[in-house]
Amino acid sequence: MSMSSSNGEWWRGAVIYQIYPRSFMDSNGDGIGDLPGITARLDHVASLGVDAIWVSPFFRSPMKDFGYDVADYRAVDPMFGTLADFDAMLARMHSLGLKLVIDQVLSHTSDQHAWFVESRASRDNPKADWYVWADPRPDGTPPNNWLSVFGGSAWQWDSRRRQYYLHSFLTEQPDLNFHCPAVQDALLGEVRFWCERGVDGFRFDACNHQFHDALLRDNPPASVESQGEVSTVRVDNPYAMQQHLHDKSQPENLLFLERLRRLLDGYGAVALGEVGDENAPPVMAQYTARDKRLHLAYSFSLLTADHSARHLRHQVEALDHALAATDGWGCWALSNHDVPRVATRWSDGGPPDTRRDRLWLALLLMLRGSASIYQGEELGLPEAEVPFELLQDPYGRAFWPEFKGRDGCRTPMPWTAEAPHGGFTTGTPWLPVYGPHLPLAVEQQAGDAASMLAFSRALLHWRRTQPLLRTGRIAFLDAPEQVLRFERRDGNRSMQAIFNLKNVPVSMPLSAELAPLAGHPLASTATVQTQGEKRMLVLAPYGVFLGEPAGEGQV
Length: 555
Known about the structure:
Shape: globular
Low-confidence stretches: 1-6
Number of strands: 21
Number of domains: 3
Radius of gyration: 24 Å
CATH superfamily of the largest domain: Glycosidases
CATH topology of the largest domain: TIM Barrel
Mean pLDDT: 95
Strand content: 15-25%
């Protein structure tokens, strides 16, 4: 089914633009981006040709993890504005034909949330079991060996209850106890609040962390055989040294996701889940079983350092195979607010190269599934360098200097090169604007037909005319080592995509049945030459060839 044939499935093959509100646009000069700032810049997003916007958390929070520690699910944090500002933002998005997807962090709250304040007060209050509390072992140590994603034990001692509480992330982010029915009911109520306010969908943060093993069994150590190819953390983080069999991705979560789906279906709202699991494809397949649970999900599989053709093919094929069993749906991302920007992460240490940036964006938009583009990817922004003394991310401060945290992808969006702080704020920005970003500012690129921004707009608008790329099947074909080659097919329509992942040209035989597809923004990066009886495809460095069966013609 193509998206155009059913607006009810607009998410299937959609392109979702992620906004990190702290860093998008500041409207009041306090140095922090806000909801009115987003509203003021929505014309830029609409001009790209995306389908929806995912806005990272803007709820009331002490900001220990910059909004992913929610203190009140129904309140806009004053630094971001008011509920009236939210309503105005939503109305403007809808007037521009954009859907709104908001973040929901259900697996944990802030330790300042009223629920946790009550829960920790005693062992017999009405919310005593709303969080994961456990007695110490006889020697006073934590109840098991579970680790936090952010380093160290996942257990924090609380002297009032004389028990430990579980925190899969920061100490200030206690995990909710989903084994408690009242917790599930309360969280569904929080989701319903935003459904009734008119949002089009939700991105559910860390949604496979929502249940833990009720018996609190130890995790076994990770072995070479047991480790997935994609870790959710760096190898220097002890979290990578365990098989996470008991602290996440528990089977009980499936029933909760079914409750969640029934709620969302009543409002026509869509669920996008973040699945942070070392063996994500089967979990994603279960979570997105058609019409039962989440609509779509994404993992960390392309947010790694490995960008070889072998790795990319393996990850995409593994997910495609898993999803086929449940008719589930995936979403791909190459950058987001948690990982270094793709322009740097997949640069092989080389200098900036717009050809390479175009290749990665084209690849993202031609995979089977939906796609998420992080703010600034359309500009080709590289990862920013943030000195330690200006670092805000607690994750980075804990693992410095081997890991510099997530601030490098969270620096402010550059709008105008000549304006102070790139036009992001009239005050002092919460993170410094990165100097090399200024020549890539939106206004600088907007008037340049050869810019990355112009290419991004052209590619996204062209993709909207290709229903095959939104919903067609995918099958990989063998190719030289530096080349990724696959076919997209939907009924009698097919398209073949060939990507040269290296900075050197490559040539390869091309079947006589395959004709170059005209009219797409990368057509000039590949040529077809005849050498005697042989037909050869010549790909420029980072070149892309799109072909279709000869005589088929475009849609």
